[in-house]
Amino acid sequence: MMNVIVERVTEAIARRSQESRRRYLEKIARAADRGKGRANMGCSNLAHGMAACSPEAKSLMQSDAAINLGIVTAYNDMLSAHQPYAGYPDQIRAVAHQNKATAQVAGGVPAMCDGVTQGEDGMDLSLFSRDTIAMSTAIALSHNLFDAVICLGICDKIVPGLMIGALSFGHLPTLFIPAGPMPSGLPNSEKAKVREAFAAGEVGRPQLIAAESAAYHAPGTCTFYGTANSNQMLMEFMGLQLPGGSFVNPDTELRSALTAEATRQVIELAKSQDSAVSLGAIVSEKTLVNAMVGLLATGGSTNHTLHLVAIARAAGLVINWSDFAELSAVVPLLARVYPNGTADVNHFHQAGGLGFIIRELLDAGMLHDDVHTVAGPGLRRFSQSPVEVNHELRWQPVASQSEDRNVVRGCDQPFQQTGGLSLVEGNLGRAIVKVSAVAEENRRIRAPARVFQSQEAFLAAFEAGTLNQDVVVVVSHQGPKSNGMPELHKLTPYLGILQNKGFKVALVTDGRMSGASGKVLAAIHVTPEACAEGPISQIENGDIVIIDAELGLLEVEAELANRDFKITDSSEHESGMGRELFAVFRQEVGPAENGATIFELS
Predict the structure, then answer these.
(1) Exposure string (b/e) for 283-303, b if CB count within 10 Å is 16 or more?
(2) Across the chain, which distance is largest between two alpha carbons, in Å?
(3) In this predicted structure, what is the pLDDT of residue 600?
(4) Using DSSP, how many helices (H) and how many strands (E) does the chain show?
(5) Where are the alpha helices (DSSP H) in 184-242?
(6) Is 24 helix (H, G, I), strand (E, B) or coil?
(7) How many Å apart are CA 581 and CA 577, to the nearest integer?
(8) Model confidence over 356-402: pLDDT tens digits?
């Protein structure tokens, strides 16, 4: 039996999306009806598209029956998560050739790392890179040579961008192939302690660099449960990559076997010509609810309260933060992975991982099993894990019990009865709080505000010692229209120091904190943002601010009607480091609750 709230949210999404979903499905049906692009293409056009191919590949590509895969890759060797993708196209082409098919790299998309740009000017481009990736994906696939799509991408804005772009070609089967996390290094909790010690002046830069390098030390995704690894969770809960493959380490035999099998599987999907396995059909209201439930049950990244909304709209579906809140009230938290615990994603995978949680949620009626996936009909097949037996890839049921109840639990004894995210709202607007990382006693605050318009201004006040009190730190003018909605993790260790001193501390901002949101209560993505005449810009020093993640409150005890909206000089964020090229993004971007996207999608 499905949970009644899960059913109700699913039905509400379907109702409010009826017209936009109809338009989307009609659009991809028209594309499918046109048939294979190569078959209808002029000879010169086709010759250009296969000029660099081998004679064998050219022969296949001229056949209407053969399958040609379009690879869209986010490879670069600066990002540890994407460096392993260097050899994937060659492997995919070889497997395709063995199966009388062809594969071409249709195009590359940019892949930037928030870990590198954190606190730097380049962070102002981070969120906008998602929509740039979507457009780059569309450009790559617009050559119309392809019968199916393979997406190679992992990190923060990259998977959502690939999804949005690929949904414009939703008539094609599409499969995501991950590369896996780096092996465990310095525990994330130890890294966090060194960061706080550095912020407190107790250790120097050499010790901090040594700790960071011991944590981020090899090819693969970072091992904490941030946006990159939340992306991988979503792809499994949405049925868009092979079961159990998210957290298999790079450069292993199992990782290679999964890549080969993914290639064979997408070829079979394309051969079937079944519209039910196209990307646009798989991404339904049920799939999206499964994704939201997965996010809440695992304590995943707050960034997905933006990205899932934008992905949904690209498929003609409309979700909002109230949907997340309704689900969060009934979805139990089943995982403790840093920053929501001490384990990393490798420990999480070994303890039972996504397959265990999917089975538990299915058995509890929290997930829709009646969905299509790239692995076949039904989500329950994703409660299996891959193994190699005599060099043959097989799937086996996940263990009946958690291998480590400090990391993964069943629905009978969850870490908490509600999900990892909360919606707070009131006279300051609406905002998201990641409660899974915040101790219960710190989930509510009533304290005076200290107002800043930048991280640097906050740090100056911290260094001056003027924040040693109960305080709600308000950092405004950090929304998408102001400066691209950067992540504000420069604040994290300093807020943590204040909390460690025994003060009640919280953050209110129209910026982001992402999947690395830590132990301090933070109401983020405040909508409307300051730059759109949001009340956050009317808060003054000393105003009493209330945040209650349990009751869903975000209030200021002040009469705002007679106050002006503060306007700040944002010119320093408008040029340099490429930011001048994104002026149109800042002008056209929509509000956070609509996905903070420049696209009019639904």
Answers:
(1) bbbbbbbbbbbbbbbbbbbbb
(2) 75
(3) 84
(4) 22, 16
(5) 188-199, 205-215, 227-237
(6) helix
(7) 9
(8) 999 999 999 999 999 999 999 999 999 999 999 888 999 999 999 99
Report the predicted TM-score, pTM, of the whole model to 2 decimal places. Answer: 0.95
Q: What is the CA radius of gyration of the chain?
A: 24
**What's the order of all strands across the beta sheet hosting 148-152?**
102-108, 68-73, 148-152, 174-176
Closest to 289 in 3D by CA, of 5, 583, 572? 5
pLDDT tens figures, 242-289 = 999 999 999 999 999 999 999 999 999 999 989 999 999 999 999 999
Return all residues near 123 (Cβ < 8 A) that are at least 6 apart: 114, 117, 484, 486, 487
Pairing of strands 421-426, 429-434: antiparallel
Q: Could you tell me which of 171, 179, 144, 174 has the C-alpha nearest to residue 162?
A: 174
Cis peptide leading into 486, omega within 30 of 0?
no
* CA torsion angle 241 68 89 236 (round to 10): 0
d(CA 276, CA 173): 9
Rounded CA separation 380/504 (Å): 44
Name, in order, each residue with C-beta under 8 angstroms of 402's C-beta and a sequence gap of 6 or more: 351, 352, 356, 408, 409, 410
Which of 241, 199, 148 shows the shortest CA–CA distance to 458?
Answer: 199
At residue 515, does pLDDT exceed 60? Answer: no
Strands (E), 65-221: 68-73, 102-108, 148-152, 174-176
Cβ contacts of 202 within 8 Å, gap of 6 or more: none
Average pLDDT score over residue span 522-531? 96
Q: What is the 3-state secondary structure (H, E, C) of 40-73?
A: CCCHHHHHHHHCCCCHHHHHHHCCCCCCEEEEEE
For residue 519, give the amino acid letter.
K
The reported pLDDT for the residue numbered 517 is: 62
Mean pLDDT rounded to a whole number for the chain: 94
Q: Which residue has the tokens 């509000």?
A: 591
Helix (H) or strand (E) holding 256: helix 253-272
Give the per-residue pLDDT at 39. Answer: 86
Q: Residue 152 in contact with residue 88, Cβ under 8 Å?
A: yes
pLDDT at res. 443: 96
Domains annotated on the chain, with CATH: 4-34+67-183+218-397 (3.40.50.2300), 421-594 (3.50.30.80)
Residue with tokens 């981020």: 216
Cα distance from N-terminal residue to C-terminal residue, the chain: 31
How many angstroms separate the CA atoms of 249 and 232, rounded? Answer: 13
Tokens representing residue 576 in the block: 């340099």
Q: Sign of the C-alpha dihedral, residues 401, 403, 408, 414?
A: positive
On whether the CB atoms of residues 188 and 181 are closer than 8 A, the answer is no
Q: What's 389's DSSP letter?
A: E
